[in-house]
Amino acid sequence: MAFSNLTDRLQGTFKKLRGEAQITEDNIKDSVREVKRALLEADVNFNVVREFVAKTQEKALGEEVLLSVRPGEQFVKIVHDNLQEILGGETATFDLPEERRNVILLLGLQGSGKTTFSAKLSKYWKERELRPMLVACDVYRPAAIEQLKVVGGQVDVPVFSIPGSQDVVEIGRQAMDFARRENRNLIIFDTAGRLHIDEVKMDELIALRDFIKPSYTFLVADAMTGQDAVNSAEAFNSQVGIDGVCLSKLDGDARGGAALSIKNVTGKPIVFASTGEKLDELELFHPDRMASRILGMGDVLTLVETAQKAFDEKQAADAMKMKNRLMRGEFDFEDFLQQMSMIGRMGSLSKIMKMIPGLSGALSDEDLHQGEGELKRVKRIINSMTPKERRNPQLLAGSRKLRIAKGASVEVSEINDLIKQFNTMRKQMSMMMNTPQAKEAFGGGGGSKFTKATKESRDRKKKKKKQQRDQRKKRK
């Protein structure tokens, strides 16, 4: 996962500082030196590191820290605030009104993940009530148009192209006409990737930009390329002009130096981050939340948003039924399988764990990888059971266990261990769910706050759609 190495290094530094009997100028300077090394190892731009370290040391050596009751926590807060600042400070905002035709131009080097990103972006705005379409302006790469059509089809968004044409301005003109005819209010242009910023003239991109007059021009940069992503952002900004950077493959970069350097070097914010291969794994970039993740503090707000996105009203109602079964001690393997499926819709185990305060820095990537493997093994065993066996675990006698073991490619002893662990877990969860705190958190039987919030969100969307229909009728 992104920043994992940096997170480990910084947490080690904070642990040392908290372990000191007394906070002094010397151990503060030692801690700042450790932070500097960690940032440089994460491939953060040297000038950015130098500025970051100077600010951190100046604040950390102030009386507010040295005389504080909890100087270690004060130091962590200073590092957090400075990380948030170099990541961009505030979350980028967008003005894409439904009543006008909005245009987004995507630029990038070849292999940056731009085509997949364009589909992710269209899905993101489609879920926010816009009517997007994609335009294929990558006229050089073989099969680029077909690739865009495939990912466009996966998110149910139309893709406009002119097969055989290499005139991107003409493609842009006809695409805008198509958008008017089809009443599309968001047009996303996927342009040809450049092998290298110096090898190909930017005239084509500039001509297209001048014709379509984009609402926003975004550079899609591969986070795994480190400082090369920063250099390409600087070059595209100086030659074509960009409004922000979208980081692809952020889930695969253990260092994260690009994210920590782009805003400071280019003056342009990071606006979106691609956090996985699935087309719905796209997040608005929140500098404050990312700073918390880097420091191992978790990211509760994004976790809640991910859960709300993953579960519709019916699934939230199913979760409430499962909660009631837990309270009555009736939780079975069928419920357990459904619970694992719900978690799977929210993303990988490592992605979820890194958003939970207290767990985000407690588990290594190796631990999380092993946890993923263990969950897959458990799912194999449960899927090898019949529905009747899943609902009635007490039926699992010798011959049944032998059949399940063969179907799941495991030993019978592993099934015995799973049943034992499951029975222990069921008792503990039943006890936990019947505490006054749990009953209050889950709505005391009157429906959870999550279920009510989901219903309110759907009601708002229905009301908004009705208003849009009424407005269209009036215009006609």
Structural summary, described in words:
- This protein has 476 residues and is an alpha/beta fold.
- It folds into 3 domains: 4-86, Up-down Bundle (Four Helix Bundle (Hemerythrin (Met), subunit A)); 102-297, P-loop containing nucleotide triphosphate hydrolases (Rossmann fold); 305-449, Signal recognition particle, SRP54 subunit, M-domain (434 Repressor (Amino-terminal Domain), Orthogonal Bundle), CATH 1.10.260.
- The chain has helices at 4-18, 25-41, 46-60, 63-66, 71-86, 114-126, 144-154, 168-181, 203-212, 227-239, 257-266, 287-294, 300-310, 313-327, 333-345, 349-353, 365-383, 387-391, 398-408, 412-433, 436-441, 449-475, and strands spanning 102-107, 132-137, 159-160, 186-191, 216-222, 244-248, 270-274, 282-284.
- An 8-stranded mixed beta sheet has the order 3-2-4-1-5-6-7-8, sandwiched between helices.
- α5 (71-86) crosses α12 (287-294), α14 packs antiparallel against α22 (449-475) and α15 packs across α17 (365-383).
- The chain is globular.
